[in-house]
Write a structure and sequence with these properties.
By secondary structure, the protein is α/β, with parallel strands linked by helices. The chain folds into two domains: about 130 residues, Aspartate Aminotransferase, domain 1 (Alpha-Beta Complex), CATH 3.90.1150.10; about 200 residues, 3-Layer(aba) Sandwich (Aspartate Aminotransferase, domain 2). It contains 13 helices and 13 strands. The strands form three sheets. A seven-stranded mixed β-sheet has the order 2-8-7-6-5-3-4, sandwiched between helices. The chain has a four-stranded antiparallel β-sheet with strand order 9-10-13-12, covered by helices on one side. The radius of gyration is 20 Å and the shape is globular. The N and C termini lie far apart (about 50 Å). The structure holds 4'-deoxy-4'-aminopyridoxal-5'-phosphate.
């Protein structure tokens, strides 16, 4: 018997997440992972490496709580938002429970559930990429964790607040509603954070990977009421954050770091508007979807041809043709103006 045959059946069947880095490419313009295009600079101030780190470093928890305007007991810090997704399933799903999500959306909800051997139910978003509440309501039997994403990756739109509140109302006492706000800094007024006081089963995922420009750090958060946070504290690894990570995260969350983040957001929004203006003039573009994030989803006459043509030129975009309902669509992250200029020039020729 081969080693892979000894692995769990659900792992044998698993298609791992196709992360941007795993997909490779030979590029000098990387617009496929919704990163900020340039790196901030930090000096390490912590020099003690022989001791284990604090499991939940105070400076990071307090810094994020101050930034998000919640109490420290509403915050758990994790190895990126991706670990938050996994912890929520680990903490709440019995083997027979189900995870529900609404495609097209972020791929890790499905991959984390499948990795943990938890069955999934899907209720596709409506044609305008909003929640299909009647269908969700019909499919709640056995569902313990629901993942929704706003702004949604890869479509870019925000979900209607009233729908999210209705979702919280119909799931009270039966399921956890996870609102993934990885891109919330690009649309801060739409955050569900003000609902934390009303809904003990609401969990909000955040990250330093996007507007804070720290995807390489691997630092994310879940915000929720203390009882829910307590469940996640039980299942998280003993020392989730390496010393250099918490050192840099704490610096990034100082008022000066937050101010820099806001300047980055303003610049991204400006470049996004420029890109959209240019895309409107390109004949092969069929549709440009409304976005509130640092990327834009674009439908082309022949998406695969456009994706491959740019790939050959070292401009790496994110092909979405396999995502539910997104044939011929490509997601373009907002890079520097120079990167976007190169992209537009290549798109005009593709
Ligand atoms: N949620 C969404 C919607 C994302 O797009 C991503 C990153 N691609 C994450 C969560 C995870 O981000 P990270 O693990 O880098 O914090």
């Amino acid at each position: 018997m081969s080693i892979s045959q000894l692995s769990r059946k659900n792992v044998q069947a698993l298609t791992p997440y196709q992360s941007a880095r795993r997909l490779g490419g030979n590029g000098d313009v990387w617009l496929n992972a919704n990163e900020y295009p340039t790196s901030p600079d930090f000096n390490l101030s912590e020099r003690i490496f022989n001791r284990y780190p604090k499991p939940q470093p105070e400076a990071v928890i307090k810094g994020y709580a101050a930034y998000a305007d919640v109490k420290p007991e509403n915050v758990i810090v994790t190895r990126g938002g991706d670990e938050s997704i996994e912890l929520l399933i680990k903490g709440f799903c019995e083997p027979e429970d189900k995870v529900l999500y609404c495609p097209p959306t972020y791929g890790m909800y499905a991959v984390s559930a499948e990795t943990l051997g938890i069955a999934t139910k899907t209720v596709p978003l409506t044609a305008d990429f909003q929640l299909d509440l009647p269908e969700i309501e019909k499919n709640l039997a056995g569902v313990k964790v629901i993942f929704v994403c706003s702004p949604n990756n890869p479509t870019g739109n925000v979900l209607n607040q009233a729908d999210l509140i209705r979702l919280l109302d119909i799931t009270a006492g039966s399921a956890i509603v996870v609102v993934d706000e990885a891109y919330i800094e690009f649309s801060p007024e739409t955050s569900m954070i003000k609902q934390l006081g009303n809904y003990p089963h609401l969990a909000i995922i955040r990250t330093l990977s996007k507007a804070f420009a720290l995807a390489g750090l691997r630092c994310g958060f879940t915000l929720a009421n203390p009882e829910l946070i307590g469940v996640l504290q039980k299942v998280i690894a003993p020392y989730p954050l390496p010393v250099p990570v918490s050192d840099i995260a704490a610096q990034a969350l100082q008022p000066q770091g937050v101010a820099q983040m806001k300047m980055r957001v303003a610049e991204v929004l400006e470049n996004r508007a420029w890109l959209i203006g240019e895309l409107k003039q390109i004949p092969s573009v069929v549709d440009i979807f409304t976005t509130e994030a640092n990327y834009v989803l674009v439908k082309f006459q022949d998406g695969e041809k456009v994706f491959n043509a740019l790939w050959e030129k070292g401009i790496i975009l994110r092909d979405q043709h396999k995502a539910f309902g997104l044939q011929n669509c490509i997601r373009i992250s907002i890079g520097t103006r120079a990167e976007l200029e190169k992209t537009v020039a290549a798109l005009k020729l593709a």
